[in-house]
Every structure is written in C-alpha cells, then in structure tokens.
Amino acid sequence: MHDPLWLRAFLWGHIAAGGGAFVLAPLALLTAKGGRAHRRWGLFYFWCMATVAGTALVMALYRPILFLALVAIFSFYSAFVAYRVLGQKAAYTGRQTVQPLDWSAAIACFAACAVLVILGIVRPHLVSGLRYPAIVFGAIGMRISGGAMWKFLHPPKEKMFWWYAHLQGMIGSYIAAWTAFCVVTIGPRLGPGSWWIWLLPTAIGVPCIIATTAYYKRKFTPRVKAAAA
C-alpha cells in the first residue's frame, strides 16, 4: 500500500528542512554572536527545526509511532526555549517577561517526556522497544522543561543566564538533528538491538554543551566583576 501524496509531501519537507538545519547551524555558530548574520542564520535554523519537528509529529501520529511523536515534541522544545529566552533577557532584574506560550510549551514538553520515561520503564513495547532511549530522552526533556518552569517562577540572578540557555538549547536541538541522521543512515546497517545509536550523539554532544557553557562562564565572569567594581 502506497503512502498518500500528502504524507510523501510531508516527508520531503521533513528531509529538506533537516538538510537546511544541518547547513545553517554551523553558519550560526561560526558567525559573530549577536551580529546580523548570526541572527539571520539562527532564525532560519529555528524555523527549519520547527518544520522538522512539525512534519515528524504529523507523520508519527499518522503511522502511528508514539515514540517518535513524543521525541519530536522533546526535540523541538530545545530550539523553542533557546529562541524564546532571547526575549527574556531582563528576567534577572525581576521583570516578568514570560508569556502563556512559554508556559504551555514547557508543560507540554514536560508531560510528553514524563510519558516517555514511564513507558520506557513499564511499557517499553509502546515506545518501539527503545527502553533506554525513551528513559534518557524523557529525563533530559523533563530537566530542560522543568528547569525552564523553575526559572519562570524564580527569576535568575545571573545577568547572562539567557546566553547559556540559548547556547544549550540550540546545540541540544542540533544534537537531536544528528540523532535522526544517525538513526536513518547508520541504524539500518547495524540491525536489531542497535538502540545505542539513538544515544550516541547525546553522549558526544552533552559534554560539548557542558564544556562550552563553562568556557563562556569563565569568559563573562571577569566582566561581571569589573562592572560590579
């Protein structure tokens, strides 16, 4: 039975947006932060990731493949929170910059990721038998969305909090893109039992996020101290 035309159109849109994200992410990362080129490539990348997640969610629900639907929500939230935090730079002063959209997205991501964890533990067959990826992705997603909601209620004290959140979210979403690429291109060659390919980009990317965040925290600390003096 052939897939309907609209589904094939979604698939090609998904592939095109994914390819665009792969090209645009390095352009955004390598251009001067805050510059016009960085903002332009970063915005294009965000919308590519939105298209990737949206098409993936629709296709996963149609099949239906619950695991992929939940992962699509989790994957996009990283890019979403990274984009939205740019409008919350004044939060450290106590100003309310969080909108209902931010709460709705955080709650939806937390709920989807909680389902991933629960099913990964008690009903792995409902998440395509991918017990460990479901638990790991779910835990990470709950931490990201839960941390965002905590900051909504407890304004951050650090002036550059938005920089770290933006950096972590964008790199995190790029890890999701690499995960999809590895699963599609390498996974079929490995055969059954190769669930670890889902976690390989995360195992490589998370230490990179930690190291990059630490680098910028060291870089900004002297400026903060100098300004305080």
Quick synopsis:
By secondary structure, this protein is mainly alpha-helical.
In terms of structural class, how would the helical and strand content be classed? mainly alpha
Quaternary state, please?
single chain
Number of strands: 0
What Rg do the Cα atoms give?
18 Å
Total DSSP helices: 8
> What is the CA–CA distance across the termini?
71 Å
Fraction of residues in β-strands: under 5%
Q: Report the principal-axis shape.
A: globular
Indicate the percent of residues in helices: over 70%
How confident overall, as mean pLDDT?
88
Q: Domains counted in the coordinates: how many?
A: 1
Main β-sheet: number of strands, strand sense, barrel status?
Answer: none
- Uncertain segments of ≥5 residues (pLDDT<50)? 224-229
Order of helices and strands: HHHHHHHH
Structure report:
Helices cover 77% and strands 0% of the residues. The protein is an all-alpha fold and 229 residues long. Helix 3 (66-84) runs parallel beside helix 5 and helix 4 packs antiparallel against helix 5 (131-153). The protein starts with a helix and ends with a helix. Mean pLDDT is 88; it is low at 224-229.
Give a quick set of tags describing it.
single chain; 229 residues; mainly alpha; 0% strand; disordered C terminus
Lay out the secondary structure.
Layout (H helix, E strand, L loop, with lengths): L4 H26 L5 H27 L3 H19 L15 H23 L8 H23 L7 H25 L1 H4 L9 H29 L1
